[in-house]
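Please predict the structure of the following assembly.
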Amino acid sequence: MNYPNGIKKDNKNRQITNNISHKNRGMTLEADLNITNEYYREIDKAYIYKKPTPIKITKVDYPSRDKTVIKEAFFTIPSTTDYNGLYKGKYIDFEAKETASKTAFALDNIHPHQINHINNINRHNGIAFLIIRFTTRNETYLVMAKDFLEFLEKNDRKSIPINFFKEKAYLIKDGYPARIDYLKLIDEVIGGI
Amino acid sequence: MNYPNGIKKDNKNRQITNNISHKNRGMTLEADLNITNEYYREIDKAYIYKKPTPIKITKVDYPSRDKTVIKEAFFTIPSTTDYNGLYKGKYIDFEAKETASKTAFALDNIHPHQINHINNINRHNGIAFLIIRFTTRNETYLVMAKDFLEFLEKNDRKSIPINFFKEKAYLIKDGYPARIDYLKLIDEVIGGI
């Protein structure tokens, strides 16, 4: 079993290796979430996918009858969050972001219409949240939309300090085979869903 | 005021031109659904979006510090349906397709993993369906996942005949301002959601 920080312990809770943290740190949050969502599908637990990156295609080429090559396209600003899907009949929706800062999560990481979207989902009884990883702290937090929106309402800041996460968010432990087992936390937070 | 598709109405909401059906025929199902979903968001009824087209990016250029141009990319096969979102706390998921055939909907229009996805969503109590437009008949049907999957199970055909739609599916009338008011049908089919 993998513990946070790459510490492996045996069944008496003694540390037995120390080389996992390198591997974990090397993986992006996106890769961890892909593996986790794939695992959820494999065990028929939830069907949650990352949306494709929105782009605007401006030039297309047809080198042969059944082949299409995009020759020019641009990334566009997403109007929703990156991940959504279905868990126990419920609509799940979240955004995932990494920051290298040790002290705060800068709010310009999230577009205003994404915040608007999170608010809409929350108001309509979807399960909305954010997963924020502080890479240099090696800590990944789940913040419920309600708490995130409350912070924005009460504060006129450009970033959310780490203390907010420590107080209001939920630390997600590295796991296996679900590397970022966020649905376990959702179960605990929401109660009997 | 300009209405979608150039339909003009007077202040009693009476249509003052008569060219709707022609124009309706000219609009793609995707355009009609975009207008409908936008309208649902405007009136705060539902938050349902078309997913971006999945592509694989193979070449990227950075002409300046804050600009990224995709120089080569390919369309990839989608693993889910095109539309999903939230309605009254429920997970909504559907695929939309047009066919020019007058007599049947060819099943090779839908990828096997999309069918698999529809099955997964249906089993997990999401509201899953298909919206199929027969363009030359000028008819748009909503088929619930349950009925669609039952057809596939019982039949070894490469297409679904129009009679199946007439018997098991729901004809969606052209409307305004929700052009394809599929949630109205969902309310009727599901009952008190």
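The helical segments of chain A are 20-26, 29-42, 112-123, 145-154, 162-168, 182-190. Residues 1-24 of chain A have pLDDT under 50 and may be disordered.
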